[in-house]
Design brief:
heterodimer, A: mainly alpha, 2 domains, 12 helices, about 80% helix, about 0% strand, B: alpha/beta, Rossmann fold, six-stranded mixed beta sheet
């Protein structure tokens, strides 16, 4: 178990190293000049050059990367080019909001996804099943900014049930988590349906019925835990999707999380912030997968971590 | 057992139909039978006879969307089970009438402990809670002679072997002392020695619990061992019903007669000397010479995924095979017989030496993989799974020729048609897909495919085990014919001792990866020397009710695990020649 954990952490470190290298390279190759951005349009060539030297942007690529990496290993994400503060602090201030959004979105997609999937599987081939599957298909295919704007228009503008944007109360949380969760709910309901249909044909389900177990118990005690396994593995992967989703959703709803921070930074080529947010997201994805793998043995005793 | 009272379960005029693309098809027609307390009724028949589906109907477990009872009654205690609404039926299932299924490996819920699965029955049917339920569950596990019963309650199914799981299934079915127990092929998936234990156990418990037992099986050996009365069914029709002795010794229906005459019987070859069909003047170089064959599988673990343990699947196995000879490898699951077969085809990594017609297989494999594979071919166990469903059977049989680039397309097609005819199939059907054929026909396709490259040796791994008795007999005849005609040698891998006796010239008995006894068929079968061979032979059910064996109730004798530490040095058995052409390990 500890050997397993140690190996996984080692793997995670390698993944993060790779992510940092690729992101850094891509940002280096971007045909825009951060120094010019900082200096502004009217600045002289000399000012721009001064800034470039000051930030170390004149150094060769490998030296820049090395500098970044060494300070990163000391826990220093660097300073934002434009916001004049530490990137670490900026992210720390905004991370809780994003985590809150993510957790409630996972909750949303699990509840909707599993419920819809179970109902569809039990009522297989009925009209209800067909309606639910069409809905989930729409959920999977609709772009998030469309879903977000649609929800905003209906529930915030027309019905005025929820605030248009912002952060602070439960009401603020509902529409963004729904927007983020709709995609996952669509995926999960389809997965849950086929997984449960498959499990219901297994021999041990026949055994449970032959024992005289009531249908409710057959489905919820015997079938569901077995059918949930692929879903649990999915949650880990999902966190990656969320990370890309929050960039859009936080902007639409004015949610003060790291997605919004990243969006602003990308527009202004604020390299330290982009790097910082990317690395934090990568961390979240790696952690999410690790947690999913650690939870799996509790649901299925056949799975052994080694 | 003469004190039979009135029937506990009375099935009258039961008919079942299933929905197919071509409309409703009747699969069970007017079954009528009954079972009394303490009585065992065996329903015997081949696949498609309706024996399983009729019992599912009685349990109310027919898949609602695809099958329905079109007429009939199943009366238990004056109530017609077929008329009961699902809610009431739930209180009868597992309580008054219980069922055990064929596949112990998949019939228990993998994510619930054994204890949970037992206790929920008591909670639902007997309102028994907590400690009381636990106590009763434990008693029942002890009653089925499960070793370390207390520990098992907290274990999950995957921690138990197949035999142990079937004991759990039996315990579960008997928890509420049902009046009727339906057992659908309960021992088919088990090894013979485990089968013998489970059958003895079921008999014992039936007496103890006063249960009427309906045993559904295709195995006439099991029928002879267990039945009081027998119902023979075929293609959804009742063929014959009667006392077990009259069914075996004076069968009336021609189908029953054929079923019993086609049955491979242990001892059928007694006194007949095995004579391989080697052609005169042939060299004495063995077709296959295996020396010190060893197969081990590494189990990785720890920080760096280094090998921490090893499965010793095959340990220093040596044997020779002459042209036109059949050598059978027998033994129970995990003994290494299948792995040996796979090593011969280079499907697993192996050590040791294998010579094919004097040629070193390892060297020839390095030189030319493709050519080296031509001389040994394989027929697998499951004719349903070993044919690609998306290719026509013609393409499948032709494929080896394509891979080995033998002849052009027209020549290959010609050869394919010839092969098809040779194995008793009509070349008109070459363009059909595997699913359009029956199990026996599919196994013929597999044989044709194996023959395509004119091999010297064919490894047949449980190749007839999945087939019905009558079909099995036909396929075995075909294999024998091909051997006569082409001088083929077979490595015949099987767990079925009666079939092995019928087909082999020599027999090797394997246990824990090693050969414990090998020799001429008559010598091994008629004069077994090793204790394991003796127990294996003794465990085979004899298809003659007059020769029922008195068995003692032994609790789960399990084969020890072949997984060992790296430092493990296997004790190698020495084979000693006890008589001419008969070697036994000491």
């Amino acid at each position: 178990m500890y050997a397993y954990l140690f190996r996984r952490v080692l793997q995670a470190a390698l993944i993060l190293l790779g992510v940092s290298f690729i992101t850094f390279t891509l940002l280096y190759l971007v045909p825009a000049d951060p120094a010019r951005q900082i200096a502004g349009r009217s600045a002289t060539a000399q000012t721009v050059e001064n800034i470039r030297v000051q930030l170390g942007l004149n150094l060769p690529f490998y030296e820049q990367y090395w500098r970044y990496l060494t300070s990163l290993l000391q826990g220093d994400f660097g300073r934002s080019y434009l916001q004049k503060s530490e990137v670490g602090e900026l992210i720390a201030a905004r991370l809780p909001a994003s985590l809150l959004l993510m957790v409630s979105a996972i909750f949303t997609e699990l509840v909707f996804g599993v419920l819809i999937g179970v109902v569809a599987a039990i009522k297989r081939d009925s009209w209800l099943d067909k309606v639910l599957m069409v809905l989930s298909f729409i959920g999977v295919s609709a772009p998030q900014f469309v879903v977000g704007i649609l929800l905003l228009y209906v529930f915030a503008v027309q019905l005025q049930w929820f605030p248009i944007g912002g952060y602070g109360t439960f009401a603020h949380l509902v529409l963004p988590s729904l927007t983020l969760g709709v995609l996952g709910a669509g995926w999960y309901s389809r997965m849950m349906r086929s997984s449960l249909i498959d499990v219901l044909t297994q021999d041990y389900i026949r055994t449970a019925k032959a024992k005289g177990m009531p249908s409710v118990r057959v489905i919820f005690r015997h079938a569901l835990p077995n059918a949930l396994l692929p879903i649990i593995a999915m949650i880990g992967i999902d966190i990656g999707f969320f990370m890309s989703g929050i960039v859009v959703v936080e902007s639409v709803f004015g949610w003060p999380g790291i997605g919004q921070l990243a969006w602003q930074a990308i527009q202004r080529i604020d390299i330290p912030i982009i790097m910082g947010v990317t690395l934090v997201s990568a961390c979240a994805i790696v952690l999410g997968n690790l947690v999913a793998d650690l939870v799996a043995p509790f649901v299925d005793p056949r799975i052994k971590l080694k | 057992m003469s004190q039979h009272k009135s029937p506990i379960l009375d099935v009258q005029d039961l008919s079942i139909s299933v929905k197919t693309d071509a409309g409703e098809k009747s699969v069970v027609r007017n079954f009528a039978y009954h079972v009394n307390a303490q009585e065992t009724l065996c329903i015997a028949g081949e696949s498609g006879s309706g024996k399983s589906i009729s019992s599912l109907a009685i349990m109310g477990l027919l898949p609602k969307t695809s099958a329905r009872v079109s007429s009939g009654k199943a009366i238990l205690d004056g109530t017609d089970l077929l008329q009961l609404p699902e809610q009431q039926m739930q209180h009868i299932r597992g309580n008054d009438i219980a069922m055990i299924f064929q596949e112990p490996m998949t019939s228990l819920n993998p994510v619930m402990t054994i204890g949970d699965q037992l206790r929920e029955v008591l909670r639902f049917h007997k309102s028994m809670q907590g400690a009381a339920a636990n106590k009763h569950a434990l008693e029942m596990l002890e009653a089925v002679r499960l070793s370390e019963a207390k520990k098992r309650l907290d274990q999950y199914p995957h921690e138990l072997s197949g035999g142990m799981r079937q004991r759990v299934m039996i315990a579960m079915s008997l928890l509420c002392s049902p009046k009727v127990l339906i057992a659908d092929e309960p021992t088919t998936a088990l090894d013979v020695t485990i089968q013998a234990q489970v059958l003895t156990l079921m008999k014992e418990l039936q007496r103890e619990f006063d249960t009427g037992l309906i045993l559904i099986t295709h195995d006439m050996g099991v029928v002879a061992e267990m039945a009081d009365r027998v119902l023979v069914v075929n293609q959804g029709e009742m063929v014959e019903m009667g006392d077990v002795n009259s069914i075996f010794h004076a069968p009336k229906a021609s189908y029953t007669q054929k079923l019993i005459s086609d049955l491979p019987k242990l001892g059928s070859m007694a006194g007949i000397e095995p004579t391989p069909t080697a052609k005169v003047g042939q060299t004495t170089i063995p077709v296959l010479d295996v020396q010190d064959l060893t197969v081990r599988f590494d189990i990785a673990g720890g920080l760096l995924q280094r090998t921490i343990k090893r499965v010793h699947a095959v340990e220093k196995v040596s044997f020779q095979l002459q042209a036109g000879e059949t050598l059978s490898l027998v033994g129970e699951s995990g003994c290494g017989k299948s792995t040996t077969g796979r090593a011969l085809l280079n499907l697993v990594d192996w050590q040791g030496r294998i010579y094919v017609e004097g040629e070193d297989l390892r060297i020839s494999h390095k030189r030319n993989q493709l050519a080296a594979r031509r001389k040994i071919q394989m027929i697998f166990q499951d004719p349903y799974a070993s044919l690609n469903p998306r290719k026509t059977v013609g393409e499948l049989v032709q494929e080896p020729l394509v891979i080995h680039k033998i002849g052009n397309d027209i020549e290959q097609k010609e050869k394919t048609a010839q092969l098809f005819e040779r194995v008793g199939l009509d070349p008109i059907h070459l363009t059909r897909y595997p699913h359009e054929f029956s199990g026996g026909q599919r196994q013929r396709v597999c044989i044709a495919r194996a023959l395509a490259l004119n091999p010297r040796v064919i490894v047949a791994d449980e190749s007839v085990s999945a087939l019905d008795v009558t079909v099995q007999a036909q396929v075995l005849d075909l294999l024998a014919e091909l051997q006569d005609e082409l001088g083929l040698s077979y490595v015949f891998i099987s767990h079925d001792m009666a079939v092995v006796e019928k087909v082999s010239h020599r027999v090797g008995v394997m246990y824990m990866g090693q050969i414990v006894e090998i020799g001429a068929r008559d010598k091994v079968f008629e004069n077994p020397q090793h204790a394991y061979t003796k127990s294996l032979l003794a465990a085979v059910p004899i298809p003659d009710p007059k020769k029922r064996k008195k068995r003692s109730l032994i609790s789960g004798l399990e084969i020890p695990s072949p997984v060992h530490e790296l430092s493990f040095k296997p004790t190698l058995l020495k084979l000693v020649e006890v008589e001419q052409n008969h070697f036994v390990a000491i």
